[in-house]
Specification:
mainly beta, 59% strand, globular
Length: 396
């Protein structure tokens, strides 16, 4: 972060600015909605972070989303309810605006104000960055780097600003949430973590829960194959969730993740089983109301909320990082096949195929495409989503 500026003016002039844009065209067809949606939202976000003065710095970021070619879609704010939902409403708002403080050489960062918060992989708390309007929180956050191996993080969040924007009745919610996350890097045993997410909702009280859990992630060399190193990785996560505060529902649910993968020369393969527990009773299932939703349980957006019977996602993941021949452009493709079932009640929810493709044309310009095909069974309806996008860093 560098040393302190000599004056407030020097700190204001000595910061960093950025301006980025992202355009997406997305089509969605979901059985149960009478019409398809064709969305064409463009996002412009920019901001400025000052230099440090007496340990203080200011961070401000705004974002605007507007429809460019087509607004023929259900944006989740109540318009066009007969069409398939694409949660990218038009909006203009602050995404982040916070005051930061760091005292001398003490490895403690304090942040107060509206900010994006993400822990680990974003499974329980994240910015939900796939949608055009990122999720952020009004919060006080303290991050303490106790050593090169140990990091402690505490956040008190008192309001959430969801991807649905200020135009939606679900766009903002008052909270009294305490989040604690600790990670420890070991030389021999990988990365260990423990967390506690205590959520008290003012209005959506059925989501008021306490969640306690732990995670372990490790990788190791598996030798050589054809002259190339093979690296294996393992991830295990467990959490327990119960009702709390004024929640009228009796919640008692578990979360499990077991993932095993291997990578060689840019080609990665993994198998995973992820369980969000549920009993089948109304509201008694493991909820993740602040997750980066599209990073988990399929791109088709069928499981933004956990069904009452819970959700078991058994999946196979294949990814390949490569360079496009002739152009020397870094590229990546990811293919995931999901089988979705209930945790209770022996229900078959369906199957889903996801494909994600990205090409970095320059260090500022990237293009990509994403496709999801969900075939429902017994409970959930078929859904198809397809999108193409372009992002450009105008200033950084």
């Amino acid at each position: 972060r560098g040393s302190d500026a000599g004056s407030i003016g020097e700190a204001l002039r000595g910061g960093r600015a950025w301006l980025d844009t992202r355009y997406r065209f997305e089509g969605a067809e979901v059985r149960g909605f009478l019409e398809r949606s064709w969305a064409s939202p463009a996002r412009l976000d920019g901001g400025y972070e000052t230099g440090s003065y007496s340990g203080f710095r200011l961070f401000v970021e705004g974002e605007g989303v507007t429809s460019v070619l087509s607004d023929d879609y259900n944006d989740g704010t109540g318009s066009r309810p007969n069409q398939a939902p694409v949660f990218d409403p038009e909006t203009l708002e602050f995404n982040q605006a916070y005051l930061g403080y760091r005292a001398g050489d003490l490895p403690l960062d304090l942040l107060l104000g509206r900010q994006e918060v993400s822990f680990d992989d974003g499974r329980f708390v994240g910015a939900d960055p796939w949608r055009q309007n990122n999720q952020s929180f009004d919060a006080l956050r303290a991050r303490y780097r106790a050593s090169d191996a140990l990091e402690l993080d505490y956040t008190y969040a008192f309001k959430v600003h969801r991807v649905f924007s200020n135009s939606s009745p679900l766009g903002n919610e008052d909270l009294k949430s305490h989040w604690l996350n600790a990670t420890y890097e070991t030389e021999r045993y990988g990365r260990l973590g423990a967390f506690a997410y205590l959520n008290d909702f003012s209005d959506l009280q059925t989501l008021s829960t306490n969640t306690f859990g732990a995670r372990w992630a490790a990788d190791a060399s598996l030798g050589e194959l054809g002259g190339e190193d093979v690296v294996g990785d393992l991830q295990l996560v467990y959490a327990r969730q119960s009702d709390a505060y004024d929640n009228p529902v009796d919640v008692d649910a578990d979360y499990w993740l077991a993932r095993l993968g291997a990578e060689r020369a840019g080609l990665g393969v993994a198998i995973a089983v992820e369980t969000l527990g549920g009993s089948g009773d109304a509201g008694d299932s493991f909820s993740t109301p602040f997750a980066s939703v599209q990073d988990f349980n399929g791109f088709a957006d069928q499981f933004r909320a956990t069904p009452d019977g819970g959700l078991v996602d058994s999946r196979v993941e294949v990814g390949y990082d490569f360079t496009l021949t002739g152009w020397e452009l870094p590229s990546a493709v990811r293919v995931t096949y999901h089988r979705f079932e209930s945790d209770a009640g022996d229900l078959d929810y369906g199957r889903e195929l996801d494909v994600d493709f990205v090409v970095d044309l320059t260090d500022r310009l990237a293009v990509g495409a994403r496709y999801a095909d969900f075939n429902g069974d017994e409970v959930f309806r078929n859904a198809i989503r397809a999108s193409a996008w372009l992002s450009y860093s105008i200033l950084r």
